[in-house]
Amino acid sequence: MSAPAKPSLDRYTPIDHAKVDFSGGFWESWSETVRKVTVPTQHQRLDEEGFLEVLNFHLPPAPLVRPIQPSGLSMQHFFDSDFGKWIEAASYTLKAHPNPALEEKIDAIVEQLAKGQLADGYLNSWFIRREPDKRWTNLRDLHEMYSMGHLLEGAVAYFEATGKRRFLEVMIRAVDHIIDTFGSEPGKLRGYDAHEEIEIALIKLHGVTNDPRHLDLASFFVNERGQQPAYYDEEARRRGKDPKDYIFKDYSYSQAHMPVREQTQVVGHAVRAMYLFSAMADVAAATGDLSLFAACDTLFDNLTGRQLYVTGGLGPAHANEGFTREYDLPNVTAYAETCAAVALAFWGHRMAQIELDGRFTDHVELVLFNGALSGISRDGEHYFYENVLESHGDNRRWKWHYCPCCPTNIARLIASLGSYFYTTKPDELAVHLYGANTGEAVLGETVVRLSQETRYPWDGDIRLGIAPVTPKRFALRLRVPGWCRDAKFSVNGAFVPAEIHKGYATIEREWRAGDEVRIGFAMPVERLYANPEVSEDAGRVALKRGPVVYCLEEVDNGFAPQRLRLAPGAGIETSYDPGLLGGAVTLSGSAVKASDAGWGGALYRTAPSALEPVRFKAIPYHLWANRAPGGMLVWLLEA
Amino acid sequence: MSAPAKPSLDRYTPIDHAKVDFSGGFWESWSETVRKVTVPTQHQRLDEEGFLEVLNFHLPPAPLVRPIQPSGLSMQHFFDSDFGKWIEAASYTLKAHPNPALEEKIDAIVEQLAKGQLADGYLNSWFIRREPDKRWTNLRDLHEMYSMGHLLEGAVAYFEATGKRRFLEVMIRAVDHIIDTFGSEPGKLRGYDAHEEIEIALIKLHGVTNDPRHLDLASFFVNERGQQPAYYDEEARRRGKDPKDYIFKDYSYSQAHMPVREQTQVVGHAVRAMYLFSAMADVAAATGDLSLFAACDTLFDNLTGRQLYVTGGLGPAHANEGFTREYDLPNVTAYAETCAAVALAFWGHRMAQIELDGRFTDHVELVLFNGALSGISRDGEHYFYENVLESHGDNRRWKWHYCPCCPTNIARLIASLGSYFYTTKPDELAVHLYGANTGEAVLGETVVRLSQETRYPWDGDIRLGIAPVTPKRFALRLRVPGWCRDAKFSVNGAFVPAEIHKGYATIEREWRAGDEVRIGFAMPVERLYANPEVSEDAGRVALKRGPVVYCLEEVDNGFAPQRLRLAPGAGIETSYDPGLLGGAVTLSGSAVKASDAGWGGALYRTAPSALEPVRFKAIPYHLWANRAPGGMLVWLLEA
């Protein structure tokens, strides 16, 4: 582990998430709920649904491998990934809040995994227990390395949280086995998993080990992807199958239809795409390969300029859990998987550390307050897999799912959120996100204590305290949100004409303990309109205030929100409702709604519905489906 | 076959469709295309796709039973039904247009079927060839009697067209076997097919045989449906299965969740529902059981008042090929299977013969000109299974289908359309539909020659010639379409103040050869609005003229029609375009469309799209998707 890493870009480094404390702010209740409710109940679900039993390598295998969970859901071949992501989320909470009982649960799982690991290092519970003869025969369909990647991310997080090396070493042995099996060297397979993930995990492992083989393997998987001849064709033929007999028709489903640097349109399975692009950004940062960053840059613009819901949701279609054609953004049938929005935060965050550009961070913030956060209930134990933008009342959160990938994904994001707030270079401090917290960064040798006093996102006034333990000159880079048209900054009470470049304002000076930056982001209610190529939003308007997208829920209004018509110029009031699901700013105003008057039993008639005046109330989209069932609408009819 | 039938309602009797000639009118090209193109090419598809080969009982069975058709589509266990419906459609064309070559093709199929028939009369090619041990074990899922029912309908039609008894006798033997197997008598199974169809066929058979057992069996199936204990529960247990392990959860999928007379909401698979209700109407008419008619009446109102697309399409959801909740009428994802619209014509037609009420016939006309006719291309050999009301350009007609039920269904409807135009009692002639034709009815003993000279549906002026061979007094019942607000009638040039009752005007007099009734139905363009419970159509308007629903297609307009906004009061012009797909009245007018101006690469922005003036052209919905691919829209944004 002493070989030098390849040269890396001069990227920003996230601070330790465990140093960030959200007490008193928006994220406090979310992060506390994840720690106190989400993490324990997810373990409970893994137990109830038989995942833990299946993992028990002390018991004889076959009879205990239950493809059907007690809830009637079937266990899938990538169930190791759920352990991996759960351990990762749990580890993030452990780092700031030691919890021996939780460590015991993790250790028990680790011991089972270690027990199952084969002599050659191979580790994938499904294949070891159920289909040992099939290992490495079908990277196209079976998520083998995806599962191992999530275990590896879990192992790294657990090591970083506790210093315990057991799981890490188990997974390093598993990686050694992968290195023995895959690569460009003669005799090795030139394969790569169709569900990207191992790449991200290997980069994280490399961050711990500094072993160049770990970075090289990630680079190999990224670079090999989409090369000809197609690995999955060859692999199918080795299985005696016709490669054309592929349910998803072509490898764009897995972003393997062409080499990654040639890709310009985001296609296929949305989570896969986000994981790949995150890995490309990681490899770019770690190796200095700007061509990978450039490809990501193009793809980011394609996603955010043509394929992203206003909530930050992505991947409209159920059929491929992903992308279809550009501007295809149906609302009622939106797939917009929670995992995909979570992974967009991963990607955008990585991009911003390579090039400090608000367009990346704006989208991290967008999903955090909307399309990702909507994936978890306010009680922290109910979930959405799909995040629709319109409901007729039949979308309800579930306790567990056939494919329970989303719960642990949103949990690990929230549990590590501190590292998304601040990133550093030796003489720079970048502030990406806003929300009350105290934190601690290290610039070069200097510890800098940080604090934000703010009601953000409910208003745009922030007091940012900057307290280096010794005075230090550095550039403070403050993100100016893309939605903000009027930003003001002062330092210690004196107005500062901050220069804004690519969405970040810079204030460079010698900072001393007691310095306070006051930030004012004007936060009016905005009406957003969609590009006319988006047929589904024609004639419609979405309401947004600051980073928060709003929706109308039937429960607040007493009528299906699809009946509402908002006049173009109508005023919209804001008020803070402390009793609403932990407190939130709601919007309200006057509008009209289509009336039943005179309809009788008719389904169609030649006269339009009468319109009657009505008051409406809108709540943050991320809070929907936490109360009584009913209709929900983001894109309101404007007329 | 000499036992007396039970007493029947005093219903109207359809005239012989073969006596109606549509030369010179709207239906000429459609019926001629069905006869000259659709029927022959459907036989060709059955050949190409291996259906004929599988049917060949002279060949050894197993190896030739190809579950995968050459096109890559899999053959389904109900493929006999495709033969049955094709023979039925072909027979209808044969009756007025003898065609020995076509008869030869039918006879060849009949001989194969006869060859396969088992000694006990059982006849179902799939089960005989592939799963002989499974017969009568799973009426819930396997369409066994559905297939036999379609063969039986084909046999009756072929007998009526040609007088040949061979197929009829084969099927009577099959029915004898069913009678031996199912019924309320001890030792018989109290089962009924989950896909209704045999009931309709048995009534048709009864019309030929007058054998009360045939009517009784139909009645048994109708009456037994939904009784407790549930037959499908018992049947599942006999197979060693848990009845709860049912993909569609409950038997409402097959309208078997409660006895049919108790049903008040149309639920489940749409085609099944329409076939059941048609059978209920048939049994009501044949037995005089008004309770069945009353149940149908309620269900008809439920369907047309809460669950019907403006095109007459029905069954919005793909998942169950059927109904969901009331007012759920999504446009882009509309399932609205062609077969279901065709079968609504069957049902509505039957209802109107029991009670002459325009609300039944209005819906027959609605589907004929819209949601059923849209299922077949202008060239007569391409089809829609799903009939969406909005497309982004990705809905294309297909040449053949995994489940090729729709092509033969629309073919048999068009090929027998004459019988929907005129029905009779001994002293009444009911005219249900309009369109140029010559026909012949028999009232009592009197032959009445009929003719309609009209451009209908392109205008509402009709010259109806009534020529009894000898003068005869009878009541002429003329349907006044529900969409018509101004109907005028004159007889031999003299205005007649016709009394209108339930949508039918009556003119009773002694009719003589040379009499002419002139009918004037005002036919302005109408704007239709949907009940505000239909969220998907909020703020939208549909254009309809007479019975014809219009849509905008991108190919006519040069832009995606979703961009259009039609002002509430804007004038709409009509013109006849002889060059459009055989000639049609099109609509045009001025409107605005959302402009790309100023959007740059943005997906969302705070300013709405600029609106630019534009001319638009709308075509009849049934003609869409016959030219270049592109967007299509029925429900236009009105603003």
What's the structural blueprint in terms of helices and strands?
The structure is a homodimer of 639-residue chains.
Chain A: E1 13-14, H1 26-48, H2 51-55, H3 80-96, H4 100-116, H5 125-129, H6 144-162, H7 166-181, H8 198-209, H9 212-224, H10 231-238, H11 270-287, H12 290-306, H13 338-354, H14 358-369, E2 390-392, H15 405-415, H16 418-421, E3 422-425, E4 428-431, E5 437-443, E6 446-454, E7 461-468, E8 472-479, E9 487-491, E10 494-495, E11 499-501, E12 504-511, E13 515-521, E14 525-530, E15 540-545, E16 548-553, H17 554-557, E17 564-566, E18 572-577, E19 584-594, E20 604-605, E21 611-620, E22 631-633, E23 636-638
Parallel strand pairs in A: 4-8, 17-23
Antiparallel strand pairs in A: 1-3, 2-22, 3-4, 5-6, 6-7, 7-13, 8-12, 9-10, 9-13, 11-12, 14-15, 15-16, 15-23, 16-21, 16-22, 17-19, 18-19, 19-21
Helix pairs in contact in A: 1-3, 1-15, 3-4, 3-6, 3-15, 6-7, 6-8, 8-9, 9-11, 11-12, 11-13, 13-14, 13-15
Give short descriptive properties of this protein:
34% helix, Glycosyltransferase, Immunoglobulin-like, 639 residues, homodimer, six-stranded mixed barrel, 17 helices, alpha+beta, 4 domains, six-stranded mixed beta sheet
Explain how this protein is built.
Two copies of one chain form a homodimer. Chain A has 639 residues and is of the alpha+beta class. Chain A has four domains: 49-65 and 72-247, no CATH class; 257-420, Glycosyltransferase; 422-521, Golgi alpha-mannosidase II (Immunoglobulin-like), CATH 2.60.40.1180; 525-638, no CATH class. In chain A, 34% of the residues lie in helices and 20% in strands. Chain A contains 17 helices and 23 strands. Chain A has helices spanning 26-48, 51-55, 80-96, 100-116, 125-129, 144-162, 166-181, 198-209, 212-224, 231-238, 270-287, 290-306, 338-354, 358-369, 405-415, 418-421, 554-557, and strands spanning 13-14, 390-392, 422-425, 428-431, 437-443, 446-454, 461-468, 472-479, 487-491, 494-495, 499-501, 504-511, 515-521, 525-530, 540-545, 548-553, 564-566, 572-577, 584-594, 604-605, 611-620, 631-633, 636-638. In chain A, the strands form three sheets. Chain A has a six-stranded mixed β-sheet with strand order 1-3-4-8-12-11. A six-stranded mixed β-barrel of chain A has the order 15-16-21-19-17-23. In chain A, strand 6 and strand 7 (461-468) form a beta hairpin. In chain A, helix 3 (80-96) packs antiparallel against helix 4. The longest helix of chain A has 23 residues, at 26-48. The first copy, chain A, starts with 12 loop residues before the first strand and ends with a strand. The model of chain A is unreliable at 1-6 and 62-66 (pLDDT under 50). Strand 14 (525-530) of chain A pairs antiparallel with strand 20 of chain B.
